[in-house]
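Duplicate of #3305? Posting structure anyway:
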């Protein structure tokens, strides 16, 4: 049930939104130095103006501060995501272009409050951790309970017989890693024999606690607590304790739970190991949880679109693409705040420099990408005319890093057009950005796949990693300070230029598909590459329990 007393009044919400829009419209502070003029191969008045505005008057950091700090993470189905959707629409109105939210279905709603997690016995320590997304809370009351380790079972029948022993306890269901030092630390400092032993221990532990049959239970933790958490909840446990550390210092994945009664929390590698060892050695650890959360049932979810109508070919489209949702262990900064800001800033530049494009330019901020490309798949189903008329889609979803490559999506003719567009870019871009031709169609890693499966020209952008996989992707450390603003500014300016060139291109990209040999030269057809198939978008919560 929704607790309406917790919601801000409409007047307060409007005032907050006006403040956020005003803050995001400010210019950069005085003292920001201008970039040197770009080196274009020929006179390009529009591209040159995009360069000047994108490099000398960039708004990405101002916009990013509002999005990442004030609005915060954008977990699908939450009020924070809807507030961010509305902020975008207000920006587009301020910029004098059409902006709208399009409902594409519903998703389970949730409100995250505080997470207070303490070790209270055999000693007192505040633990580093947080609720998993969509975890039930404790009604802001203290719940104190002992811990128990999920044993190894011969089969699921033995697990069910054991369940009464876990009633009223906090169950530890994740691998107890033998070290929280990343591999690079062991490589730099350990003897070869010591590192080999540690590698072996790590692999053994992760095998034991992973997969679809955790410790012989017949159940899976999936991306958090999965079907195992739900079965433990049915057995009356007080809660579920997890940990998904990265191979890095201090980072953990913070994903999701489908529990509705028993809370689910994620602890840091170090604190999970502490609690596990105390439990393993019969030192009677006890934890106190005070968690504030509301499960709100299915809530409407939206894609947000900004649109500049084409003046000559309004039924052909250039699409700027990035997913707007995030997990909420951090702020969703590099996944995919930076992609969203790249496309938002590129669109802002185009509204100023190119207000009457030949083709219609759309920026799509997709919802629920983290749950199976839901928003972008729904958009392709609801707007077949855009898929049919698509001239080019540019998608960025790889973190904060500077774009170093643009793939032609497995379309040879798309590669020919991309080569022509890039030949007109300044050397500041062409010296570092390469075209992957013909490239390959996205198979599902990001929203370009929702369009590529139709054979539409979907250009994926790849860049420098900035330790994305280990430090920011879905972690508790994905925050504002991890963004490299010079790189995002580069990405937005490059994207705006490519969108302009795609809109102005006199001919439309054809859709002949590359052969397997063209996509993977020298590998032949064995193992056979198959063009990805389109999947239907779920229009309500689709649980991932395995």
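Output from current build:
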């Amino acid at each position: 049930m929704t607790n309406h007393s917790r919601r801000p009044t409409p007047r307060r919400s409007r005032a907050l939104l006006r403040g956020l829009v005003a803050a995001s419209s400010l210019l950069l502070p005085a003292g920001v130095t201008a970039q040197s003029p770009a080196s274009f191969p020929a006179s390009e008045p529009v591209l040159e103006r995009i360069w000047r505005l994108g490099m000398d008057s960039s708004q990405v950091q101002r916009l990013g501060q509002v999005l990442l700090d004030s609005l915060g993470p954008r977990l699908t189905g939450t009020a924070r995501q809807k507030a961010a959707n509305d902020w975008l629409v207000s920006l587009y109105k301020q910029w004098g272009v059409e902006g709208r939210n399009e409902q594409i279905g519903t998703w389970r709603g949730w409100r995250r409050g505080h997470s207070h997690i303490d070790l209270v016995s055999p000693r007192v320590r505040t633990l580093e951790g947080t609720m998993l997304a969509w975890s039930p809370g404790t009604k802001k009351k203290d719940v104190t309970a002992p811990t128990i380790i999920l044993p190894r079972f011969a089969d699921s029948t033995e697990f069910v017989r054991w369940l009464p022993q876990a009633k009223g306890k906090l169950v530890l269901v994740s691998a107890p890693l033998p070290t929280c030092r990343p591999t690079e630390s062991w490589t730099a400092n350990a003897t070869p024999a010591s590192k080999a032993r540690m590698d072996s221990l790590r692999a053994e532990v992760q095998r034991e606690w992973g997969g679809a049959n955790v410790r012989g239970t017949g159940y899976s933790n999936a991306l958090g607590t999965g079907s195992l958490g739900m079965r433990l909840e049915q057995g009356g446990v007080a809660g579920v304790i997890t940990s998904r550390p990265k191979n890095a210092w201090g980072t953990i994945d913070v994903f999701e739970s489908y529990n509705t009664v028993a809370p689910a929390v994620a602890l840091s590698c170090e604190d999970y190991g502490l609690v596990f060892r105390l439990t393993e050695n019969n030192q009677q650890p006890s934890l106190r949880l005070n968690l504030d959360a509301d499960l709100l049932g299915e809530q409407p979810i939206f894609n947000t679109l900004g649109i500049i109508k084409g003046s000559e070919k309004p039924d052909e489209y250039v699409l700027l693409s990035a997913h707007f949702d995030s997990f909420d262990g951090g702020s969703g900064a590099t996944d995919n705040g930076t992609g969203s800001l790249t496309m938002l800033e590129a669109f802002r530049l185009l509204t100023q420099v190119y207000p009457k494009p030949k083709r219609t330019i759309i920026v799509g901020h997709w919802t629920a990408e983290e749950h199976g490309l839901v928003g972008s798949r729904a958009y392709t189903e609801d707007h077949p005319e855009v898929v049919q008329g698509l001239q080019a889609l540019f998608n960025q979803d790889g973190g904060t890093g500077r774009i170093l490559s643009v793939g032609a999506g497995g379309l040879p003719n798309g590669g020919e057009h991309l080569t022509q567009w890039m030949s007109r870019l300044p050397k500041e871009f062409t010296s570092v950005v390469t075209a992957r031709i013909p490239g390959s169609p996205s198979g599902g890693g990001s929203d370009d796949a929702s369009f590529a499966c139709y054979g539409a020209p979907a250009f994926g952008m790849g860049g420098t990693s900035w330790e994305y996989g280990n430090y920011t992707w879905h972690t508790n450390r994905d925050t504002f300070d991890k963004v490299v603003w010079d790189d995002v500014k580069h990405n937005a300016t490059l994207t705006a230029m490519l969108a302009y060139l795609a809109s102005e291109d006199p001919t439309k990209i054809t859709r002949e598909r590359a052969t397997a040999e063209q996509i993977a030269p020298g590998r032949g057809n064995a193992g056979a590459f198959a063009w990805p198939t389109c999947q239907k978008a779920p229009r309500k919560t689709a649980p991932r329990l395995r």
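Confirmed duplicate; merging threads. The two ends are 27 Å apart (CA to CA). Residues 177 and 202 are 6 Å apart (CA to CA).
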